[in-house]
Task: inverse folding
């Protein structure tokens, strides 16, 4: 009743307007980041992609589709990226799943945190340093020379797609394990017992219960790894040695070496477009398969 | 094939978890077609027993038989028993129909789709959930989820249906309805039911036989009436129903008198004839419970004890207030001397 007095009404009005201001202030950094570090640069790249290369390199304003017509010239980079990035993501997921399962189900809670930290430990040293190490391990004086001792000769790993895939699994495993771990940790272990009770062998239980319920985690992890792998250039640079190159390497080459900014911009736009389309369909597929998010609330 | 009259049998089964003995030397035999409850407080080993029957745990020593066949060491997925879990454990990523058909779909050879669909419809009809097949389990109420769990287990026609505190998560009213429904269901399908519960009312009202457990051991097995009328010791008398204990001169024995066997009246002279005990008492407390009233009275000789006065007797003998001096008594048959363990 007292709330209807004019003074109380004025008070309640300031109370409703203040949260709006707070919300706006809290959202401002994200909005600024989004606009100035994403939308604006993307727009610039899009504009550049229709331009021409200045005689001394760089950008000359123009409107031409020539850059897009020239894309097939970089077909090898597109092909490598579009085959090795999904393949690398898949391999990483296959390697990460047992690790995450072990951590979430088999390891006692006392050791879990320590083990998770160990999974993340590779991130404590520089990525460059770690890829250098792999260059030596996979190089001709590394693994192939050890294999030669046991009679397996003429093995080449470095500068092949295999080297890139090995590097991808190694480099991105720490990103893939945690999301899968989280979804397996949430998984009600009684569901596994229920499945066994109803006559499902352990293998069938895995494919019918464990995997479907861990799918959101696999999807999140795969998304992270796929996006990073699609845009990567250090990994193919080190372990592909200029023979197995990605779109990222093509971009470095176009922008920094041949200084053909408009063509580089067209390649970038193509890369972003491909990512958008792939991720859109991937998410649609995953969401159609996982109706469990609401179940988690129950 | 087998002549064994028992669907499930424990032969001197012991289960240890490290130093803790969860189940000690159990011999338990479940007859075909009966409704048996294992009753006991939490930690008495009843759930562990159930899990050993399902195959989730294996006994440390001893043997488990199902339909006369030794299944010790056989994993859960190869045992012809099914379980209704305490929180149902329905698969959240599957529809109600896919949950119910799960067991059939694990068989090899897998039954034809039409056959599975028909069985699912039948199973859902049996638990009165016709037309719920397309729903998701989390869209259902607790009672409905419970019934899906029942259908999911019963569709496999198990040798025994194991029920792990199936009604614990339901509210009181629904629990009562489900008790009746479970009993009817058991009679209709003719499958052996084995229920684990800490709720004595649940065990007494539904079962043909009740097995009372304590600290991993079976204390007494018998019909609900046997347990209530002829408990083997103080523990069973205390756990099954309410009772009053009067300490005697010996510390190894105790006198038990059920509160509903005690009569009260305005004075000792007003008590009916033929009572072996007649005591003047003071009313300490009175709780109105609807169909009866629970009095706590105290006598100088025996101390405080509980009396259950049904509505009908109140009409004859009157309602008493706290502080009133009245009389209480009971017949010789109401007295039971029990080991004090």
Result:
């Amino acid at each position: 009743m007292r709330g209807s007095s004019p003074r109380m009404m004025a008070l309640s009005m300031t109370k409703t307007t203040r949260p709006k201001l707070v919300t706006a202030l809290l959202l401002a950094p994200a909005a600024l980041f989004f606009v100035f570090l994403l939308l604006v640069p993307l727009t610039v790249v899009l504009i550049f992609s229709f331009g021409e290369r200045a005689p001394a390199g760089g950008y000359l304003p123009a409107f031409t589709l020539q850059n897009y017509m020239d894309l097939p010239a970089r077909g090898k980079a597109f092909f490598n990226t579009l085959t090795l990035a999904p393949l690398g993501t898949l391999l990483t997921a296959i390697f990460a799943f047992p690790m995450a399962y072990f951590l979430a189900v088999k390891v006692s809670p006392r050791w879990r945190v320590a083990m998770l930290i160990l999974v993340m430990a590779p991130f404590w040293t520089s990525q460059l340093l770690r890829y250098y190490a792999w260059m030596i391990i996979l190089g001709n004086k590394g693994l192939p020379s050890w294999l030669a001792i046991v009679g397996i000769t003429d093995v080449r790993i470095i500068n092949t797609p295999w080297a890139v895939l090995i590097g991808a699994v190694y480099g991105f495993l720490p990103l893939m394990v945690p999301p899968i771990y989280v979804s397996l940790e949430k998984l009600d272990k009684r569901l596994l017992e229920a499945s066994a009770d109803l006559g499902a062998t352990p293998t069938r239980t895995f494919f019918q219960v464990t995997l479907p319920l861990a799918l959101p985690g696999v999807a999140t992890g795969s998304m992270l790894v796929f996006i990073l792998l699609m845009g990567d250039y250090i990994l193919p640079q080190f372990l592909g040695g200029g023979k197995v190159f990605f779109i990222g390497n093509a971009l470095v080459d176009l922008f920094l070496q041949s200084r053909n900014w408009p063509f580089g911009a067209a390649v970038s736009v193509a890369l972003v477009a491909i990512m958008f389309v792939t991720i859109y369909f991937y998410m649609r597929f995953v969401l159609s398969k996982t109706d469990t998010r609401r179940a988690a609330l129950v | 094939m087998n002549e064994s009259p028992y669907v499930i049998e424990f032969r001197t089964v012991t289960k240890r978890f490290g130093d803790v003995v969860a189940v000690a030397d159990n011999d338990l035999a479940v007859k075909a077609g009966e409704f048996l409850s294992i009753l006991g407080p939490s930690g008495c080993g009843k759930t562990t027993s159930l899990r050993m029957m399902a195959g989730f745990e294996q006994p440390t020593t001893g043997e488990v038989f199902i339909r006369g066949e030794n299944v010790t060491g056989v994993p859960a997925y190869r045992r012809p028993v099914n379980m209704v879990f305490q929180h149902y454990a329905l698969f959240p990523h599957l529809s109600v129909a896919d949950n119910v058909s799960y067991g059939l779909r694990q068989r090899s050879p897998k039954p034809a789709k039409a056959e599975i669909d028909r069985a699912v419809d039948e199973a859902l009809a049996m638990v009165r959930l016709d037309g719920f097949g397309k729903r998701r389990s989390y869209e259902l109420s607790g009672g409905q989820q419970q019934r899906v769990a029942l259908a999911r287990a019963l569709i496999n026609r198990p040798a025994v249906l194991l029920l792990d505190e199936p009604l614990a998560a339901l509210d009181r009213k629904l629990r009562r309805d489900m008790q009746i429904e479970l009993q009817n269901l058991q009679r209709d399908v003719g499958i052996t039911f084995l229920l684990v519960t800490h709720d004595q009312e649940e065990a007494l009202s539904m079962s043909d036989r009740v097995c009372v457990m304590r600290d991993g051991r079976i204390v007494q097995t018998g019909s609900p009436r046997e347990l209530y009328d002829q408990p083997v010791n103080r523990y069973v008398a205390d756990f099954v129903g309410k009772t009053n204990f009067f300490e005697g001169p010996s510390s190894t024995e105790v006198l038990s008198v059920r509160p509903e066997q005690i009569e009260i009246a305005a004075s000792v002279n007003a008590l009916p004839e033929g009572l072996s005990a007649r005591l003047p008492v003071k009313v300490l407390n009175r709780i109105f419970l609807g169909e009866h009233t629970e009095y706590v009275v105290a006598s100088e000789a025996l101390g405080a004890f509980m009396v259950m006065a049904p509505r009908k007797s109140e009409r004859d003998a009157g309602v008493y207030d706290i502080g009133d001096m009245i009389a209480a008594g009971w017949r010789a048959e109401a007295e039971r001397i029990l080991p004090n363990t």
